[in-house]
């Protein structure tokens, strides 16, 4: 009788372990994903053994109830002990296998900063209905963003910065009403910004610098109430700056430097919530708006390398704060105002203008 009891207990324990393990289909999908990658230095995949992929598989987390794989978190730069022991950052080659799309309960996919992972983003990634985070920064991914990426209706973070991604921004992207962080920096993305970019109503950061984007800045961006950081620098954008950008409630950083933007500086930018304003290296003309006041608070305001003319506006002395100011390489004339912030600026902030004078330049 005692032998039978022990036997039943053993069987029940084995059954319980089998139930608690991840499904064999998820395990097979992870192993197929692993097969497409080569990580020669750290051995991060050494732990990917055994029947239960939810148990101590490096970078893998599962849903506690369903035991389905919920998160893949593989970072090539980390404070994890595995990196500290190796005394190096990660390096991985290979491609991201479409087998990842068989993990249909994925909530987050982070495969970041491995420097050598190439190939395209699997198009089927748009079929993961629960995906909230897609972070593929710092690899050598090529090809376009998936055309139907807009199907990811729970996505909050899309980060593919520092890759070699080409093509245009998919029109479906603006369907992702949940998106809060968009980072496409330092790729080869071309074409125009979607005219309905403003549909991304939850967006707080839009970082698209160092691409090959052309066309104009969509005025609809100003409809994104939560947008705090807009970086469109180092592209090929043209046309005017929408004045409505200066009326955005929480926009604090606006980087439009190194484009082909023309027209005048909208006065609204000078009396806005923006504290970091970089409009340098464009083709802006006309005068610097003479509308500075107590609402003008700038840690940085860079208007250098444009075609601005006229004098430095006298109201600039009434700004509540200006940390760094650069007006160099324009066509400005007249006396540099005396007082803050001009008493702490160097000559390089005013050099290469037509006829500016006064401290810190030559006397008038």
UniProtKB/TrEMBL annotation:
Pfam families in the cross-refs: LRR_1, LRRNT_2
GO CC terms of this entry: membrane
Top-level taxon: Eukaryota
Record domain Leucine-rich repeat-containing N-terminal plant-type: where: 24-63
PANTHER family assigned: DNA DAMAGE-REPAIR/TOLERATION PROTEIN DRT100 (PTHR48060), LEUCINE-RICH REPEAT (LRR) FAMILY PROTEIN (PTHR48060:SF3)
Protein's UniProt name: Leucine-rich repeat-containing N-terminal plant-type domain-containing protein
Keywords: Cell wall, Leucine-rich repeat, Membrane, Repeat, Secreted, Signal
Location relative to the cell: Membrane; Secreted, Cell wall
Family stated for the protein in its record: Belongs to the polygalacturonase-inhibiting protein family.
Signal peptide limits: 1-21
């Amino acid at each position: 009788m005692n032998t039978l009891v022990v036997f039943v207990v053993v069987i029940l324990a084995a059954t319980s372990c089998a139930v608690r393990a991840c499904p064999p289909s998820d395990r097979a999908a992870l192993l197929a994903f692993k097969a497409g990658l080569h990580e020669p230095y750290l051995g991060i995949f050494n732990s990917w053994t055994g029947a239960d992929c939810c148990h101590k598989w490096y970078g893998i987390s599962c849903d506690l109830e369903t035991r389905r794989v919920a998160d893949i978190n593989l970072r090539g730069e980390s404070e994890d002990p595995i990196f500290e022991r190796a005394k190096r950052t990660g390096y991985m080659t290979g491609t991201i296998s479409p087998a990842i799309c068989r993990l249909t309960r994925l909530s987050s996919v982070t495969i970041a900063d491995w420097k050598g992972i190439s190939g395209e983003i699997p198009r089927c990634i748009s079929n993961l209905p629960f995906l909230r985070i897609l972070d593929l920064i710092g690899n050598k991914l090529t090809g376009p963003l998936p055309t139907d990426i807009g199907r990811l209706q729970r996505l909050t973070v899309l980060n593919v910065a520092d890759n070699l991604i080409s093509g245009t921004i998919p029109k479906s992207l603006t369907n992702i009403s949940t998106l809060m962080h968009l980072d496409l920096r330092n790729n080869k993305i071309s074409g125009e910004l979607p005219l309905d970019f403003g549909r991304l109503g939850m967006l707080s950061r839009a970082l698209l610098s160092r691409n090959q984007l052309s066309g104009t800045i969509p005025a609809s961006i100003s409809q994104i109430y939560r947008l705090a950081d807009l970086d469109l620098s180092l592209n090929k954008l043209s046309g005017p700056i929408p004045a409505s950008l200066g009326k955005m409630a929480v926009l604090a950083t606006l980087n439009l430097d190194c484009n082909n933007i023309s027209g005048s500086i909208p006065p609204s930018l000078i009396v806005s919530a923006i504290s970091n304003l970089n409009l340098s290296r464009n083709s802006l003309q006309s005068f610097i708006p003479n509308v500075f006041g107590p609402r003008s608070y700038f840690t940085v305001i860079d208007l250098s390398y444009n075609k601005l003319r006229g004098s430095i506006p006298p109201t600039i002395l009434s700004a509540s704060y200006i940390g760094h100011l650069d007006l160099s390489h324009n066509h400005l004339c007249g006396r540099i105002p005396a007082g803050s912030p001009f008493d702490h600026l160097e000559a390089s902030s005013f050099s290469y203008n037509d006829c500016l004078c006064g401290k810190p330049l030559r006397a008038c």
